[in-house]
Write a structure and sequence with these properties.
The complex is a heterodimer of chains A (107) and B (813). Chain A is an all-alpha fold and 107 residues long. Helices cover 81% and strands 0% of the residues of chain A. Chain A is elongated, with a radius of gyration of 14 Å. Chain B is an alpha+beta fold and 813 residues long. Helices cover 34% and strands 18% of the residues of chain B. In chain B, the strands form 5 sheets. An 11-stranded mixed beta sheet of chain B has the order 1-31-2-3-6-7-8-9-18-19-24, with helices on one face. The relative contact order of chain B is 0.15. Classes of the chains: A mainly alpha (107), B alpha+beta (813). Chains A and B meet through helix 2, helix 3, helix 4, helix 5 and helix 6 of A and helix 1 and helix 2 of B.
């Protein structure tokens, strides 16, 4: 993989994001694994962590869309669930950051 | 450090941080939270999309399940097993957590998921061994025609449990529900029966007699209230009821039994425990039926609104079942297959609590360190078993389940002084019962003869059953088995704790945790009833005047405020003639609070002790018309005055009770409270009433309430009391004493309203909340605003709505 090639990098990131969302829908560890996948194509370790966090936020947005599609009342109810929602946001952001660290490990 | 080694160190550090964070996620409570709440995979979010699969294969034949706009399942099948399977599927999809929580309550398993807060409840329910009573009941039902339908229903619940996401509450508590069993269905019956007939009033009366004397006890907790609004014997309505000769010797009047031993108080600890787990005394209801003789259409109309706990989701689940031979719509308790209150294509029915005494307490002479008790001229060993109550986040608790010839034996582990510390408890529900069969037969009924026959098997709870049929028939009957107590062969009332060793107050033919015969119970034909009355009204008031009836029926009845008002309004409607369903819906919305007239002398007394704005407020209450509507201030003042006045009475008159007791548990009814004179209050009644009125005003000012609707608002909450699970608040009318029943402080009231004309006019109904127990769903609370406004929705039985599930497979019946 050539990280310096923008098209290749973005393509790999998009592919990684789709695969990551798939894994994250099976198990919470998928948030970390997905973040790691999107982090790997990035040019630097800090960008890898940022991509991981962005993946976590993407997972939150996809979950919100899923709730919107489930019914008109589902998302408003979920937004009222203060503590569970806090866990969800923390899991997405922290899980994304932790996964993003992989970019710094593999070099 | 070289650049390479520094890089390696940095990578190792990042790997350690990442690995540590992931490892941390797998450890301790974090793992549970992540499994439940992580975005995309968390089970708590899965429940938002709980649409069932469009096709479900099973073993019970073809059926279709549709949901209408109010989330009411409409199920059609050619076979009853398929119908039951689909009903189980719908209830499992919509109410599984509620079903499991109620099952846990009665099995004494709440602490396993909730923690130590529910240990008292678990100790009681394990001690009563409701689970064994449910097992005995299922043994009796299993081989009847209801047995296979109950099994099919359980299959349906369990299929939904397998097919659909776990309800969000299970994720919050982090456990999975066990399969639903036929014994659980029977347990649901025990739950409601205990809620309507379980009462330890006898203990409170005896304690009051022991502490304050016979006269005080008779004044504060009288067996009968002085009114003329009994259900049977009402002129022009139920006067022609068949008074049984019974061939029975009339029992001595309650409270005059010369053989009574001196009253003994119950140990405060035992009393506290039992009061804490006892069902609320207010569980009541309204129902009435007007025959075609007095209706505009010439066909009868029946109405019912049971008053139970208002909770999220509601205590009732609405369903429509269509079979080639019958179609039925109404409500059932989640966990029960058949419609309990509702209507089929031949008639409609409802229930109110009859208040019959079907529970007794016994004490024993013991020996051998309390392991044996004398029973007549023999000594018997208590049946003893040790059970474990699992407690979340705390050590398990070992409890002893003890039984005697009478039933459960309860003690609070209290040290004995002069008080009674252990009690045998006999309750009709501890025996095997056939109510499931009776309810199934009501669903299937093709006319009033079937209804009459079905009620023979309605063993529990004791209820006032009201029916109106398309053939013009009207029925009123007290259901359930009511024991006849005998001491030395003579009938005695069940108004005191019996000496079980002397075999006082025995129920012949009663077998706790087994099958009882009818031998020791009031014969079915002689239970209070009337066929085809011109009209009938029930509101938990006295069923019949004791002088007219040859058996002891009840220790006490509810306060008659609603009963008096009901007769007053029904009499007026019938006198006017041409009664319509709309008239009877208006009657369900009646908000006249009869307590005002009862307390008018007390309020008038207080007037001389008040001045200024307080007196102006009091005058406004005295001039108020008694209509408990939200736009008035007078009802706000009045209901808070009642609370404060009762508090003042408890402090003044009951403060001398043993200090370990909560004197409020021994407070009289408001019907009695209104008649108590100066001698019960420090400084006299007028001073007490004025003081209570001032306190009421202070509270209202402190809360910032202006009108009744500022206070009288729905507060219907989920057991978890989380904002996203609780229902929204709406102002409503009515009070604890009005037909339009709402008890804001107790969180109770009309848990279902139905008005069913027996012609082609559609019946109408409403639930206080919504039919779907999934908080993400639109139908979670979609009926609440209409309920609070006194509105109704159509109660038709058409198979409309989008097809949700097609059930296929298995043999047709």
């Amino acid at each position: 993989m050539t990280r310096s090639d923008r098209v290749t990098r973005w393509s790999a990131t998009a592919l990684a994001a789709v695969a990551g969302l798939g894994i994250a829908s099976l198990h919470w560890l998928g948030l970390v694994a997905g973040a790691a996948l999107v982090a790997l194509p990035q040019r630097t370790a800090p960008r890898g962590v940022a991509a991981g966090v962005a993946f976590g936020v993407l997972a939150l947005l996809v979950a919100a869309v899923g709730l919107l599609l489930a019914g008109p009342d589902a998302l408003p109810v979920a937004l009222e669930m203060t503590q569970p929602l806090g866990v969800a946001v923390a899991a997405a952001v922290l899980g994304g950051a932790v996964g993003g660290l992989v970019r710094g490990v593999v070099g | 450090m070289t650049e390479r080694s520094g890089d390696l160190t940095r990578r190792a550090l990042l790997a350690a941080v990442g690995g540590g964070a992931v490892a941390g996620g797998f450890l301790g409570p974090v793992r549970g939270y992540l499994s439940a709440f992580a975005p995309l995979s968390g089970g708590a979010w899965d429940a938002a999309a709980d649409d069932p699969p469009v096709r479900v294969a099973g073993d019970h034949g073809e059926a279709t399940l549709r949901y209408d706009d109010a989330g009411v399942p409409r199920i059609e099948a050619d076979g009853e097993a398929a119908l039951s399977f689909a009903a189980g599927y719908a209830q499992g999809a919509d109410r599984l957590f509620q079903m499991d929580l109620q099952r846990r309550q009665l099995r004494g398993q709440l602490s396993a998921v909730v923690g130590e807060a529910t240990l008292d409840s678990d100790r009681f329910h394990v001690g009563m061994d409701f689970a064994a009573a449910a097992d005995a009941t299922w043994d009796r039902v299993r081989d009847t025609d209801a047995g296979p339908l109950v099994e099919a229903y359980c299959d349906g619940v369990n299929r939904a449990r397998d097919d659909l996401p776990t309800p969000v509450e299970f994720e919050l508590l982090d456990y999975d529900p066990a399969p639903w069993t036929p014994a659980d269905v029977m347990l649901a019956e025990k739950l409601i029966a205990w809620g309507l007939t379980g009462s330890f009033r006898t203990l409170r009366t005896e304690t009051l007699r022991a502490e304050l004397g016979d006269d005080a006890a008779a004044t504060l907790l009288p067996d009968r209230l002085d009114h003329d609004a009994a259900i049977l014997g009402h002129e022009g309505a139920t006067a022609d009821w068949p008074v049984p000769s019974g061939g029975a010797v009339r029992p001595p009047e309650a409270g005059t039994d010369e053989s009574s031993r001196a009253a003994v108080g119950t140990d405060p600890e035992l009393d506290r425990w039992l009061s804490g787990v006892e069902p609320p005394a207010w569980a009541g209801s309204n129902s009435w039926a007007v025959s075609g003789e007095h209706t505009a259409s010439g066909d009868p109309i029946v109405a019912n609104d049971p008053h139970l706990t208002l909770m999220a989701p509601p205590v009732w689940y609405e369903q429509v079942l269509r079979h080639p031979e019958y179609e039925v719509r109404g409500v059932t308790f989640p966990g029960v297959p058949f419609v309990v209150i509702g209507e089929n294509d031949r008639g409609a029915w409802g229930f109110t609590n009859a208040g019959c005494d079907v529970i007794d307490c016994y004490e024993y002479e013991k020996r051998a360190d309390g392991t044996e008790y004398r029973y007549g001229d023999r000594w018997r060993s208590f049946d003893v078993e040790t059970r474990t109550i699992e407690v979340a986040d705390a050590p398990d608790e070992e409890v002893t389940v003890k039984k005697s010839a009478h039933g459960a034996v309860l003690d609070a582990g209290a040290g004995g002084d002069e008080f009674r510390t252990e009690l045998g408890v006999a309750w009709t529900g501890l025996s095997a019962t056939r109510t499931t069969n009776a309810i199934l037969d009501l669903n299937r009924s093709r006319g009033v003869e079937d209804v009459d026959e079905a009620l023979r098997r309605f063993d529990e709870p004791t209820q006032c059953f009201v029916y109106a049929g398309r053939d013009g028939s009207v029925r009123y009957r007290v259901t359930g088995k009511v024991p006849i107590r005998r001491t030395d062969g003579e009938m005695v009332p069940g108004t005191r704790v019996f000496d079980g060793s002397a075999r006082e107050g025995e129920w012949a033919g009663y077998t706790p945790y087994g099958e009882s015969s009818w031998d020791g119970f009031i014969p079915y034909e002689e239970m209070p009833h009337v066929d085809d009355p011109p009209y009938v009204g029930t509101a938990n008031q006295r069923v019949v005047d004791d002088v007219d009836y040859p058996y002891y029926l009840a220790e006490d009845y509810s306060e008659p405020f609603r009963g008096i008002r009901l007769w007053e309004r029904l009499d007026a409607l019938v006198d006017r003639g041409e009664v319509t369903a709309a008239d009877l819906r208006d009657l369900q919305r009646d908000v006249h609070d009869g307590r005002l007239d009862r307390f008018r002398p007390v309020l008038a007394d207080a007037r001389s002790e008040l001045s200024g704005a307080a007196r102006d407020d009091l005058d406004a209450v005295l001039e108020w018309d008694g209509e408990a509507v939200g736009s008035e201030r007078a009802p706000l003042l009045f209901v808070h005055f009642l609370d404060a006045y009762e508090g003042r009475f408890v402090a003044d008159a009951l403060g001398d009770l043993d200090g370990r007791r909560d004197p409020a548990d021994y407070a009289p009814t408001q019907w009695v409270l209104a008649t108590l004179g100066d001698e019960w209050f420090d400084g006299g009644r007028a001073v007490a009433a004025a003081d209570a009125f001032e306190k009421a005003r202070e509270r209202i000012d402190a809360e910032g309430w202006e009108l009744y609707r500022d206070y009288n608002r729905t507060r219907i909450d989920h057991p978890f009391d989380q904002s996203f699970l609780n229902y929204p608040r709406y102002p409503t009318d009515g009070s604890a004493a009005t037909l339009f029943n709402f008890r804001v402080e107790a969180g109770a009231g009309s848990s279902w309203r139905q008005v069913c004309p027996q012609n082609d006019t559609p019946s109408r109904c409403i639930l206080p909340g919504g039919n779907d127990g999934n908080p993400y769903a639109e139908s979670y609370d979609d009926q609440l605003a209409a309920w609070a406004n006194g509105e109704f929705k159509p109660m038709d039985r058409a198979m409309r709505g989008d097809l949700a599930v097609r059930f296929v497979g298995g043999e047709e019946e």
